Amino acid sequence: MKALTLLAVLLVPAIGFAQPPAAEEPFPKAAFEVFRMAPGRQEDFIRKLALWDEVSAAGGQPRTQMFIHEEGEGWDVLLFKPYPKTPATPAQQAAMDAKAKSLGLATGPAFWLEMRKNVAWHSETTAQGPILASQWLARLDAWRAANPGSAQGQ
Hints:
The protein is α+β, with helices and mostly antiparallel strands and 154 residues long. 43% of the residues lie in helices and 19% in strands. Helix 2 runs antiparallel to helix 3.
């Protein structure tokens, strides 16, 4: 629970600049990953992340936003990955594959073996947002109006 509270505290300033979606648009989504690094492996992990950001940029995809632990529970790195609005096209994927190859990055199953050298523990989740509470409530109220007799919830 402390990790989730800390995640919320860290991300409010980071995502506060984002514009919430209009009422008719789907809510944006993002992935959050929390890592505890293997001893002495934080720098290598961050250097690899910087290379993967180059791969993302080569395909016109968003770069990963990183947060570094300062105090509190036992995690080292938090990643915030906004999902792109549209999936990578075949041309974008080809550009990213070529960039990964040119940088000598492990891909496919070898990617996971390489990444796990740096990681002692990892957790990942997806979420909707950033959105305003009023936007979420408006959608809930509209859904309930369109679905009378549905569960009211808490």
